[in-house]
C-alpha cells in the first residue's frame, strides 16, 4: 500500500481484532519455523535468506497499521516484538558473505520504519519510508467528539525498550559477524564488509532511529566496533 492523500483513519474495533489475530498467527508461524530451521524438510525458513523474506512481509504489514491513535499503539507493540524477534533470530544462522547485503537492507528498512513510527507518519510501502499524512480521523463509530486526532509518540517506557533492543541487538550482530569465514586467518570480518562495500552501512546501523530518540548525545553508547565513523 502506497501513501494516500486522504487522512488516515484508526482501525475499528472489528478491524483491530482481525489484524491482531492475523499478525499473532504470523508471529507464531515464524517462530515455530525458526525453531525448526535445522530441519530443512520441516521448516519454511531453513536459511537466513528465507527468514528475512518471511519476516519482511510481517514488517511491511505491521508498518501499514494506521498511525492514528489508538491504532498507533498496536503498530508500536507489534514492531517492538518483531524487532526483538529478528535481532535475536539473525545470529541463529551461520553468517555467510552472500546474505550480508540482505541483512543490511532488512535492518535499514527497520530503521526507516521506526523513524516513521517515532514521527507519527504513515508508511509508504513503495518508497519504503514514512510520509506525513493529513490530520487523521478516529475510526468509524468512535465516540470521540474530536474531528481529528494526531499520531502520538512512543511512551518513555517504549523508547527505553526500543533503545535497549537496538543497542543490544547491534552488539549481538557484531559477535555474529566475528564468525564470518574471511578465507584469511589473519583477517577479521571488517575486511569482508569493506570489500563488499557494506562496512559503513553496518557501522551506521539504526543511526536514524537512535538520532531521532536523542541517543547520540552521550546518553547511550554505541557498541564498540559498530559505531559510525566521521
Please characterize this protein's 3D structure:
The chain is mostly helical and 230 residues long. Strands 1-2 form a two-stranded antiparallel ribbon. 52% of the residues lie in helices and 3% in strands. Strand 1 (122-124) and strand 2 form a beta hairpin. It is built from eight helices and two strands; from the N terminus they run H-H-H-H-E-E-H-H-H-H. Mean pLDDT is 84; it is low at 141-152 and 215-225. The radius of gyration is 19 Å and the shape is globular.
Write a concise synopsis of the structure shown:
By secondary structure, this protein is an all-alpha fold. It is built from eight helices and two strands, in the order H-H-H-H-E-E-H-H-H-H.
**What string, H for helix and E for strand, traces the elements in order?**
HHHHEEHHHH
Helix content: 40-55%
How many separate helices? 8
Sketch the major β-sheet.
2 strands, antiparallel
Poorly predicted ranges: 141-152, 215-225
**Strand-residue proportion:** under 5%
Mean pLDDT comes to 84
Structural class: mainly alpha
Order of strands in the sheet with most strands:
1-2
Biased composition (Polar residues): 145-154
Region (Disordered): 125-154
How would you summarize the topology of this molecule?
Blueprint: H1 13-35, H2 48-63, H3 71-89, H4 97-118, E1 122-124, E2 129-131, H5 156-177, H6 189-195, H7 199-203, H8 207-212
Antiparallel strand pairs: 1-2
Biased composition (Polar residues): 145-154
Region (Disordered): 125-154
What keyword list fits this structure?
two-stranded antiparallel ribbon, single chain, 230 residues, mainly alpha, globular
